[in-house]
Design a protein that fits this description.
single chain, 350 residues, alpha/beta, Rossmann fold, 2 domains, 6-stranded parallel sheet
């Protein structure tokens, strides 16, 4: 069993991106599993001086980013070459490859999307066998496996850190047909995230109350939208618990920049923890998780989502089954559980 790892991040620690939040959650989760973690982040100068401003501007450039991806793994590899730390962890193929050349220690590379360049494929095919891959979704795995990489792997979706509503508390959320219905959407507002669908759903029934909390600006307007504003992460946790329904959209575009096969199921796990009834787009990246039967899947159109809401309102047995399934989904996908599974997987080579 591994005892410690060196985690090489590829972002600045002080930014509020999904990648940084996920990385921090994983570092905390490894520590919760009694793993010593030595994290490395991009550095930013703190002093308010002209030189610091100039240096920080340079640190934001792509040139520095690639220099960082080359220089840092060389430094880290040399520093930990003869120390007890027995595994390296990164999200960068290039970082993993450089470490692989310098030290003969196990490496885990976490991959969230398909390869962007032929160089990435070439590097992967030349990694030593003590390197293992962590795929975010099964769709990512299928893409890489079709390239005959030949390395051991594990599929490990993102996880959540929300408080999980108990089954008893969920039972109290069984719907009264005559009561007002609260429907929530939390996330980015974009075409791939269902903006066109959401825009029409709010018009389907004037008695349904909508609570829209997007990460970016939106153009939604309707009398039954009770709230439409940005929430902090802590506010999101509290607001989700108040919702009867939670909507999740993933809309394939079938274009080059289509993220529908690689999007993280993180939001789905957060929804599952909060106790609301989840209605989600019927796409493979979410269908991977259907074993818990806690999700009501829908075609990507407003009427289908509306019909799903009506179906759940009128079927108490379905409500109970969805609650039990969502609870199982939330319990199985915490950051601590994810880290534990990855540690077990990594330890097979040590």
């Amino acid at each position: 069993m591994i005892r410690s790892l060196v985690y090489i991040a590829v972002s600045f620690e002080d930014v509020r991106t999904a990648s940084v939040i996920q990385t921090k959650n994983m570092i905390t989760a490894f520590k919760q599993n009694n793993i010593s973690v030595f994290p490395y982040w991009k550095y930013r100068f703190r002093q308010e001086k002209i030189l610091s401003y100039f240096l920080n501007w340079f640190l934001e450039t792509k040139i520095f980013h690639y220099l960082y991806l080359i220089i840092l793994p060389i430094f880290v590899s040399i520093k930990y070459r003869k120390t007890p730390e027995n595994i390296f962890y990164t999200r960068s193929i290039l970082v993993g490859y450089i470490i692989n050349i310098i030290v003969n220690k196990p490496i885990l590379i976490e991959l969230h999307t398909a390869p962007h360049w032929k160089l990435e494929i070439l590097l992967l095919r030349n990694l030593k066998k003590n390197t293992k891959l962590i795929y975010l979704t099964d769709a990512v795995r299928e893409k890489f496996e079709s390239l005959n990489i030949g390395l051991k792997y594990q599929v490990a979706p993102d996880a959540h850190d929300f408080q999980i509503l108990s089954l008893n508390d969920r039972a109290a959320k069984i719907l009264n047909k005559n009561a007002s219905i609260k429907i929530g959407y939390f996330g980015k507002y974009s075409e791939q995230k269902g903006s066109n669908i959401l825009r029409e759903i709010v018009k389907l029934n004037p008695t349904w109350e909508f609570y829209i909390h997007t990460l970016n600006d939106n153009d939604l307007k309707a009398e039954n939208i009770k709230e439409n504003r940005y929430l902090s992460r802590e506010e999101v946790k509290l607001k989700m618990i108040q919702m009867d329904f939670l909507l999740l959209f993933v809309v394939p575009t079938f274009e080059k920049n289509d993220i529908s096969n690689y999007t993280s199921p993180l939001k789905l796990f957060e929804y599952a923890s909060s106790g609301g009834f989840i209605i989600a787009s019927d796409v493979p990246v979410l269908r991977e998780l259907e074993g818990f039967n806690g999700i009501c899947f829908s075609e990507n159109n407003p009427k289908a989502f509306g019909d799903a809401i009506k179906k759940i309102i009128n079927d108490v047995r379905l409500q109970t089954n969805l609650q039990k399934g969502a609870l199982g989904l939330a319990l199985a996908n915490t950051w601590s559980t994810r880290a534990k599974n990855i540690v077990i997987f990594a330890s097979e080579t040590t």
